[in-house]
Give the backbone structure.
Amino acid sequence: MNIGNKSVPTPIAISFWLWVVVAVLLVISGILTATSPAEEAAAARLNLPVPTEVMTISSGIGSFIGAALHVLFAWFMAQGRNWARVILTIFGVLSVLGSIASIFVGNILAIIVVIVTIVAVVEMYLPAARAHFSRPVR
């Protein structure tokens, strides 16, 4: 399979596209969370000096930035950069750990994000993928 101008092993291509899916799901999740009535009520109870609209917009922007970083590091991972694979693994572990509470309350979107994230991380470490990171990068 090819990503950009580079031919990559199938597990790497699968992982790349799964990270893109994770990024899209994170944006959707961020927007849903930021615009939920429960979130607005919680912000109002805190009596913060910042209007709820500003908090909603900042949460949405944060989701987009996080998603862009996921895609950026996935691109570098697909190009054979091992450091990007390590960063994505750290993102994956933190994402799974951070979603534990959401999973237990039955948040379907969180469950999907966790499953896709775990598969994306596993794909990066399959034997066919390991060789991709050991060859010289051009």
